Amino acid sequence: MAIRINGSDVAVPDDVRVSLLDLLREQLHLTGTKVGCNQGACGACTVLVDGERVLSCLILAVQMDGRSVTTIEGLGSADNPSPLQKAFVAHDGLQCGYCTPGQICAATAMLDELEAGIPSYVSPDLAAAPSLSREEVRERMSGNLCRCGAHNGIVDAILEVAGERAP
Predict the structure, then answer these.
(1) Structural domains in the chain plus CATH codes
(2) Intra-chain end-to-end CA distance of the chain, in Å
(3) Which of 15, 32, 56, 80 has the smallest count of CB within 10 Å of its CB?
(4) What is the pLDDT of residues 71-90, one digit of tens each?
């Protein structure tokens, strides 16, 4: 039994009570994923599981057996940041930076959802491809909180990267 984390296979913990968040931070020392509320309300612990955003504090590590997990460390590095990481810096989409890894992981999945044509609560036409507006980004990112108030920069960063990805 193994979990693929950032491209490397990791053994599933023997203790079935270990959350994915605790596996990442305490056992693998991937501390980019943050402990926020530990109740699934803030989004600080957001990671990607098979490309979809997941709150790692709410899922058990054993549930990840055979799946692929990507953390902020797997999206980019200091030497080679991802487009979203660059845009967050350029648009001041962070202040203290605590929520930033979860924000970037969520935004990565959100952009993939848009490309797949998945509507949100505020999408005006469920049958049409969603158009990207500030309101649409805010709705799709509403599960990721920022106490510093960097939301405008976060939205600007996402809109910039979405524009670069547009066909």
Answers:
(1) 2-75 (3.10.20.30), 83-165 (1.10.150.120)
(2) 39
(3) 80
(4) 999 999 889 999 999 999 99
